[in-house]
TrEMBL record:
Described purpose of this protein according to its UniProt entry: Catalyzes the transfer of the phosphoribosyl group of 5-phosphorylribose-1-pyrophosphate (PRPP) to anthranilate to yield N-(5'-phosphoribosyl)-anthranilate (PRA).
Ligand binding (anthranilate 2): 169
Entries under NCBIfam families matching the protein: trpD
UniProt-recorded name of the protein: Anthranilate phosphoribosyltransferase
Catalytic activity: N-(5-phospho-beta-D-ribosyl)anthranilate + diphosphate = 5-phospho-alpha-D-ribose 1-diphosphate + anthranilate
Pathway membership: Amino-acid biosynthesis; L-tryptophan biosynthesis; L-tryptophan from chorismate: step 2/5
UniProt subunit comment: Homodimer.
GN (gene name): trpD
């Protein structure tokens, strides 16, 4: 085991956070394929036991960004709805549906995501069932973004260096620092993020990291019912990181002008069921699933400045669905 891994493991085991630079160098070593699996596993577990820090998250994100395949584009405003996952809420792929509706409403979207890890259905899984080619190379992804205003950035394809740690992560079978990195490493460099988190602790840590790494504006959300989405079951806490600094808000179903919707009504057991729900929403089926997507889209529209208030955003989202534009946007993403 190399001396720097020995030092870092001992440091983390003693309860001391690693510096941003130190973490970045260690992650670089992992992603370059220079680190041994045993030392990678030992460090990730030591960090998990201690509790990952903002400096470690930022350092790891900067390293992963250096290794990712970048997607060039000409959009001044680019939205991502990728969250950290980990809520175990069992809902359909809400953020993926929100990405499609937001794109149909005129927002350029680079949806970052992967196959399921901590959920029953990942964004890549459901898009695959919906007929979207998820394995596209970088040039094809960039072309789709320029021509259609929406693309899917498949993490497994556009973060090729992650192949060096996939084995040890699978062997460990627990969430580690890497599970938090997805929303911080969008290959297209999203300027705006609607970013769901599974706990208030994760929400605060990710917001601090976003503040340091930088976006034009981001909403980091956590619902008090446990969802890592904008919820209509109860309050959703929001950390707004943007030009005015860091602000905290709380949204309720009344702010959207929508009826409360319980989490059980949003359940999907697998990607096929999730895809069916999304198809029906885009075809105009009413109900709590549609309302939840409308609420999430409204938040995204306020985030990028397409709406000044959540209720106005809901009106735009509903019209986008009812006009057939959202369904057409999914069709363009498939083609």
């Amino acid at each position: 085991m190399s001396s720097r891994f020995v030092t870092a493991i001992a440091q983390a085991t003693s309860g001391t956070d690693l510096s941003e630079e130190q973490t970045s160098e260690l992650i670089d070593s992992m992603l370059d394929g220079e680190a041994e699996e045993d030392e990678v596993a030992a460090l990730l577990l030591a960090l998990k036991a201690k509790g990952e820090s903002v400096s470690e998250l930022v350092g790891a994100a900067r390293a992963l960004r250096r290794h990712m395949t970048q997607i060039p584009h000409s959009h001044e405003v680019l939205l991502d709805t990728c969250g950290t996952g980990g809520s175990s809420s069992g809902t359909f792929n809400i953020s993926t549906a929100v990405a499609i509706v937001a794109a149909a409403a005129g927002v350029a979207v680079a949806k970052h995501g992967n196959r399921k890890a901590t959920s029953l259905t990942g964004s890549a899984d459901v898009l695959e069932v919906l007929g979207v080619p998820i394995e596209s190379d970088a040039a094809s992804v960039a072309k789709r973004l320029e021509e259609n205003g929406i693309c899917f950035c498949f993490a497994a394809k556009l973060h090729p260096a992650m192949k060096h740690v996939v084995g040890v992560r699978r062997r460990l079978g627990v969430k580690t620092l890497f599970n938090l990195l997805g929303p911080l490493c969008n290959p297209a460099g999203a300027t705006h993020q609607l970013l769901g988190t599974p706990s208030s602790e994760t929400q605060s840590m990710v917001a601090d990291a976003i503040s340091q790494i930088g976006t034009t504006r981001s909403f980091i959300v956590h619902a008090l019912d446990g969802q890592d989405e904008v919820s209509l079951q109860g309050p959703t806490n929001v950390i707004d990181v943007g030009p005015l600094g860091v602000q905290r808000h709380q949204w309720t179903p009344a702010d959207f002008g929508l009826l409360p919707a319980g989490r059980d009504a949003l359940a999907a057991a697998d990607p096929t069921e999730s895809a069916g729900i999304i198809r029906r929403i885009l075809e105009g089926e009413p109900g709590p699933c549609r309302d939840t997507v409308i609420a999430g889209t409204a938040a995204a529209l306020v985030l990028v400045g397409k709406a000044t208030q959540l209720k106005a955003g809901c009106e735009i989202a509903a019209h986008t669905i009812d006009s057939g534009a959202a369904n057409q946007k999914l069709a363009s993403l498939r083609e």
